[in-house]
Write a structure and sequence with these properties.
By secondary structure, the protein is an alpha/beta fold. The chain has helices at 24-27, 31-37, 56-64, 68-71, 75-82, 123-136, 183-196, 200-207, 230-234, 245-253, 272-284, 297-304, 307-332, 377-382, 392-397, and strands at residues 2-8, 41-45, 92-101, 113-115, 142-148, 151-156, 215-222, 238-241, 257-258, 290-295, 336-341, 358-364, 386-387. The structure holds zinc ion.
């Protein structure tokens, strides 16, 4: 038996008036999901434990089978693992976003945050800006690391974990009330604007009508986590396919291999088909029993507040990933179980994550369930199947008897 998770980041949503009261998942044309739904177990799962902040970090830890209440130490340390950054137990890492702030105000505190992703800036451009920040904000015990697109890291030797605000939670708001209390971090952010504002990369981006990456934004502080090996815990050899450092970091922490797919970038135009082919090859030729395919696009479209683009992302996943994976396995005659689900909702009208339970679809090529006509937030609730502890869903996928 082979196991595959198709994790559609932020896919769950709420009914949208412009869609006649349907959610993007309901409005999207999803032939392949609908086909599977008819013979699959469909239910709801709580991926974000009550009282925890909804994020891809906590939610994906749950889905991969690690109770975030026990294992979660912050988002950025997971990303630090993925890029091989050295972290001592007493070091603290911070996510360093490259964000777009409004430019017409006089004072830094009065600016508004327009885009938490600087228009999904390319890693090449971001690397240039990060090198300007490393140079201009040089300080003993603080090190910047280049990640992917707008997502980067700052590691502080022997630091303290402090409360910080996620930039995607305050889109369009004035930043003054959300800046770090920590003097050093705050001053670094203020100075980052002066360093980045007129950087050639940003001049070029403005000329091309793109959002300039004109400020650093620190958040997601944490220390190094200690995850148990996925293979030891579950007895299956696993691999991760994701363009996002956070997910790669969870994989490194759990002792899973990261498989890189050319052209996978976490955006709407990611290489969906390449992810599907890579997953099938990993399971059928390369000796893996379990593959976790993570697609960031629906979440990003949720943050951008575009239900049309979110629908497009969902349709591409359906057509270019779920369809091909299923037909490849059917052709090869290998038995498989496939779990399709979001990590958390990212409703387009909220433009950030919520902690509500999400619908899941569990397909088993050797069994027939009396399923539903479609897979959606609505049908997930209709069946009455509810997994309260998200980390148990992995045991269910892997058919482990839980004592
Ligand atoms: Zn998100």
């Amino acid at each position: 038996m082979k196991y595959i998770v198709i994790l559609c980041d932020g896919m769950a949503d709420e009914p949208i008036e412009e869609l006649g009261g349907r959610t993007p998942l309901e409005a999207a044309r999803t032939m392949n999901m609908d086909h599977l739904a008819k013979g699959s177990e469909i239910g709801m799962v709580r991926t974000v434990p009550e009282g925890m902040a909804p994020g891809s970090d906590t939610a994906n830890l749950s889905v991969i089978g690690y109770d975030p209440k026990e294992y979660y130490t912050g988002r950025s340390p997971l990303e630090a693992l993925s890029i091989g950054a050295e972290m001592a137990p007493e070091d603290v890492s911070f996510r360093c976003n490259l964000v777009t702030l409004s430019e017409e105000e006089e004072r830094y505190e009065d600016r508004h945050i327009l885009d938490h992703s600087s228009g999904e800036i390319s890693t090449e451009e971001a690397a240039e800006l990060l090198s300007a920040l490393s140079e201009g904000l040089k300080r003993k015990g603080y090190t910047f690391y280049v990640g992917t697109s707008y997502r980067h890291l700052l590691i502080r030797e022997k630091g303290k974990v402090v409360e910080l605000t996620a930039p995607h939670d305050i889109l369009t708001k004035q930043i003054g009330g959300y800046l770090p209390e920590d003097e050093v971090l705050r001053e670094m952010m203020v100075r980052s604007y002066d360093i980045l504002k007129d950087h050639p990369v940003n001049k070029k981006r403005r000329a091309e009508g793109k959002n300039p990456a004109n400020s650093a934004w620190f958040w997601g502080a944490g220390t190094r986590p200690a995850l148990r090996s996925f293979e030891e815990k579950n007895g299956v050899k696993g691999a991760m396919i994701s363009a996002v450092d956070l997910l790669k970091g969870i994989a490194v922490g759990a002792g899973m291999d990261n498989i890189i797919v050319e052209g996978a970038n976490g955006g709407l135009d990611t290489n969906y088909a390449g992810k599907a082919q890579t997953a099938v090859k990993a399971l059928t030729e390369d000796g893996y029993d379990f593959v976790y395919v993570h697609i960031e696009a629906p979440d990003e479209m949720g943050h951008q507040g575009s239900f049309r683009d979110k629908i497009t992302a969902i349709e591409r996943i359906d057509e270019q990933i779920i369809g091909p994976v299923r037909s490849s396995f059917e052709k090869s005659g290998i038995d498989f179980r496939m779990l399709i689900l979001p990590d958390h909702p990212t409703p387009v009208h909220v433009r950030t994550h919520t902690a509500d339970p999400v619908p899941y679809l569990l397909y088993d090529s050797t069994k027939h369930f009396d399923g539903q006509d479609t897979y959606s937030e609505r049908t997930g609730k209709q069946t009455g199947i509810f997994v309260e502890k998200g980390d148990r869903l992995m045991d269910h996928l892997l058919e482990k008897t839980v004592q």
